[in-house]
Amino acid sequence: MIPYLKYDIIIIGAGVAGLRAGLELYEKKVNFLILEASSEIFGRVRTLYDFADFPIELGAECIHGNNNDLYFLAKSFIQNNNYSFIKNNYKELYWVPDLQKLLEYDDIIQAKSSSVGKELKEALKFDKLIGSYNKEKDLSIKDFKEMYLKDNQFKDIFVALSSHDKGAGETEAGMYGLQEDEENWGTSTDDSYEEFLFKKGNFSEMFSIYFQKILDRVEKNCVVSEIDYQNDQIQITLQNGLIYSCKKAIVTVSLGILKSDLIKFSPALPAEKKEAIHCLGFSGGIKILIKLKKPFWPKKTLFIFANGQGIIPVYWVTSAGGRSRKDFVLTGFFMGNEAKNYVQKSDFLIIQVKLQLSKLFNISEAHLEENVMSTYVKNWFEEPFTKGGYSFITINNGYKNHRKNLAKNIRKKIFFAGEATSINFSSTIQGGMITGFKAAQEAVE
Ligand SMILES: Cc1cc2nc3c(=O)[nH]c(=O)nc-3n(C[C@H](O)[C@H](O)[C@H](O)COP(=O)(O)OP(=O)(O)OC[C@H]3O[C@@H](n4cnc5c(N)ncnc54)[C@H](O)[C@@H]3O)c2cc1C
Q: Ligand 1: which of 23, 41, 44 to mutate, most ligand atoms within 8 Å of CB?
């Protein structure tokens, strides 16, 4: 078949990486098109509008650090719309195994009678624990926890803040991979690392404005199944048989899609690229929302760390910060291989979550049940065009340049972008954006 849809550059995927690449090509007046598999844009940025009386993020939710393009964009977005970030004066609750109850950080730290405060402080220094690990052999987070935090009752908080936060189960990520990403992390102007959440406004709204001028360049429901780059003109074939032709292509699909062989590359990808795809990890990712009639946590609570008590490692109060006075919503955040066990099992997961919450808050299951208005499960491993949460470096694969190798272009024809290719901002929106921008610049050089 003769390809009849010709462009200079075709971008595959309309997540933030693909759209940021598109914006750059638009500015440079390049003839380009974005092919998006799904019926929606923004990829792992997705906002739910009808669960509560305020919008809720099902994917990315938080802005990490104050020295990156995403933060600057969000700051001008809130200023232009008279919105704000929520103020960071909130409390954190931790499950204390010795006392079998949830306590606030200050109460744990001030406890005089035991070493409990010291143990919590040690577990919360997860970045220092990771940074100082220098043994010859890499260790999984689970093994590190068992060897070095054996007697610390908050050791599962270390797991929640290290591997789970990085999208991995405790057996999937290694100390050296986390160390590599941590060392390269470059989001703050100084040592004070801050995170920002919208009080009003949300990512979908912000990106609809930011990418407005290129949204008509996105063709939805176009599942790319083959990229043939052996000749001068690249041929891109869709699942429905349609063929597009271009001089260069920018691939921004998730690492989960690259791992899945949904897209066939002809010739096959170079060995180095294949190794990077294999050695970087992409695992389960679930957000579960619970809307309640009344809150059963202390005022000003933001985070609740379950510390190994029940299924979900961490919850946050999504309605906090003045987002709602009526709908009290908790978000449970469940990443890594254990989350994969819940594919097509949302009802079972909700039962587990209710059991966990009744134990954590010391309320009867019947009382909790009466209080629950609705629940919602977003399982990113079930998403056919994502297939997981976000990327991490697997055990025994730290310091091997896998992210760099994933990002390398092939013959200056096929360029790669997306959060997994980002060295400084992996696993984030800003990682997607910056790599999209750079890939577009490289492609027009
Ligand atoms: C639960 C969760 C919580 C997160 N929390 C945060 C957070 O708080 N802060 C933060 O900064 N980041 C967070 N992230 C990560 C962030 O969402 C991602 O890093 C970012 O959105 C990735 O953008 P991307 O463009 O690289 O990839 P994607 O968003 O995955 O975009 C890739 C696009 O390619 C399309 N595609 C796939 N296959 C094909 C195909 N064959 N043909 C055509 N198109 C295809 C997909 O449909 C998708 O639209 C979170 C992610 C998850 C899942």
A: 44
